[in-house]
Amino acid sequence: MNENLQYNTKRSRLRIPEYGRHIQKMVDQALQLTNRDERNKMAQAIIGVMGNLNPHLRDVPDFQHKLWDQLFIMSEFELDVDSPYPIPLKEVLSARPEPLSYPQNFPKYRFYGNNIKTMIEAALKFEDGQEKEALFFVIANHMKKCFLNWNKDTVEDKVIFDHLFELSDGKIDLRNADETLSNSDDLIRLSNKRFGRQKPQTHKNKKFRSKRRK
Q1: Which helix (H) or strand (E) holds 188?
Q2: Could you tell me which of 57, 71, 63 has the C-alpha nearest to residue 23?
């Protein structure tokens, strides 16, 4: 085995692998310089090389700021040079972000989406009349379409009306309505057309199939 060969598994870990080991070596060399002026010149040279990797962005101020931040990260915040931007703090970089809170108003009805509650509240603010009643059925049809996207089968209108009654805290009751919702097949076809889904084509012509077999 050649003793001069070096395997990456035996080398030190790269702090920002995207820049490769050569840039990291330049940063390590800059850390060894005792003269501040030489360190500043070395830092500027490193920034130039890093910028050359993305020439279309190297002169953009925000990108320059990013390069200097990455330079300090690769030096583990030990490089003492004059930066044109505020030097980032190691504590800020290593700090964990606050967890995001996701709206989960009705976890068991997630397939309706989180906007359904907003739609219901907006509909309830309408004045009583045919327009308000029609809006309730629009929401119910939307819920049915969402349900079918989640469960590609069929669903009875009664299920949708029960869910709408529950989600509206009993303020929208269509359970005894004479009007029915849109047909399940039509809603599925509309959803497939919207998202560009197509059913596989089948050849119903027997002569065509027989010719292909020959």
Answers
A1: helix 184-194
A2: 71
* CA 211 – CA 31 distance, rounded (Å): 76
CA atoms within 13 A on the CB side of 79: 30
* pLDDT tens digit at each of 214 positions of the chain: 455 655 555 667 788 888 989 999 999 999 999 999 999 999 999 999 998 888 887 677 789 899 999 999 999 999 999 999 998 888 887 788 788 776 555 567 888 887 888 899 999 999 999 899 999 999 999 998 888 887 767 788 999 999 999 999 999 999 988 888 888 777 767 666 655 555 444 444 444 444 445 4
Q: Which residue has the tokens 């989600």?
A: 167
List the chain domain ranges: 13-94, 107-194
Which tokens in the block code for residue 133? Answer: 């009643």
